[in-house]
Amino acid sequence: MRPADVENWIRGIIISPNADHPDVTSQRAETPAGGDRGALFKRRRRLASPLTPPKSARSMSQNAADGMTPATKRRRMIAEVATISDSSEDELGLCGAGGARAAVENGTGTDAALAFDADATPRAPRRSAKASPVKYRHLPQAGAASPTISGASSTSSTSNRSMSTTSSPRKRMRALEVAFEPVEVRPLVPDMPQDMPQALAEFCSQLFDISQGVGVLGDSTQDSFMEHSNPAMKRVASVPRHFSAARDHLGPTPSIDCVLSILISAQECQKYPEISWNLEVHAPVLSLALRPPGSPPFSQPCGFVACHPARIIKEYLNGSVPDKMIDFCLYLDPEALKDRAAVREIELTRQSLAGYMINHTDYDPLRKRPLTLSIETKKPGEGLENATLQVGAWHAAQWRFLDAMADRLGEDSTSLSFLPAIIIQGHDWNFAATTREGNKTVLWLKQTIGSTNSVLGIYQIVTALQSFRRWTQKTYWPWFRATVLGLPSSP
């Protein structure tokens, strides 16, 4: 292309202004005095340079079609942002919007409007020295009312009862540690009984013997082990400490075939989900221990029930709680005990209780059956932190309920030494417990009971469960009768 052709092209642009650039349409080509064609060329080049469209979502031609100049567009954009900032400036982080808005409203011009950069990265607002202190929503505020039996007031209302349930179990456990009624985790070490209440230490000692296989088989079963075709049964029978005459006082010793059936199911469920373990392994073990052969379910004074749907009644909540609580529990049934006075008193007491429940949970099967032992289950090797959180929160709510019930009668709930729990991880069953120190719940973790990975381990678990049943009937029920129901400790 010849230089003359380029010059003619530039002259044509100046004579016919580009409609896409309103600022250029007002320009007129004028030849400088003296006919300096070089100066004219430089000026034309200067005018031509902005003709390349800018890289933006809205072109200048669109602005022109709307009757908006760039300055007008900026003012409109700032005004819109300023309107939003009136109500949510802190949330959006538009720290500079206030100054830009004032400049626009005061009509100080485009330069003032440019004080706000719409493309700038939003920044968090600076906190002034006089800013209000942060309120931790998961902690009760000073002066909050104590939980009442009627449930009219609670320190754990829906608006401030919990942090996000999507937080990690560790963070939520930390929240419970500093809650108004905290939960503290301590190690459960049978060899250091001086660190725990005496009654809990004595119970741990019994469970330790069971975990070592001491007295987990009745004397009457020794011959059946010796005569069994499975060589493993003969090895069990060859250890004298496994057998005891006192074992039969806890309940019947299950047959070898029943235990082998559970062992096979446990091996099959090794990589199955938690619900399969609950249905195929854990529930049959509980039945083997607590439902004598030939007796109908739910007819025993101390029974068990699956309670996966159970939730804490809001009046007894304490800070952050998990979505899921426990999987099974042991309960005491006054009707099966034929304790008419207790049945009548429970019915009367429920009329003034939150949810009309004699427990801290709204689970209907437990509405008139006091809950004693809580059981949480997990897959093999998984979920100990979650289980710790669930048992800690669950027991803290149970203590809150018992505190309120005891206060009603002028009694002291801490006269009950501990509340028991079991945490199951696949094959492994572990004992846990909570005690009360003032308004603090102390969660003690954990002591091995037995494993469904062996015949002897299953017998250990069955023996331990029958020990919990005896504790429920001999210790918990007399205490509950006197401290919660206001009746004599024995019928």
TrEMBL record:
Stretches with biased composition (Low complexity): 146-168
Region of interest called Disordered, as start-end residue ranges on this chain: 19-70, 116-173
Domain PD-(D/E)XK nuclease-like: from-to ranges: 241-477
InterPro entries: PDDEXK_12 (IPR046797)
Superkingdom in the source lineage: Eukaryota
Name this protein carries in UniProt: PD-(D/E)XK nuclease-like domain-containing protein
Source species taxonomy: Eukaryota, Fungi, Dikarya, Ascomycota, Pezizomycotina
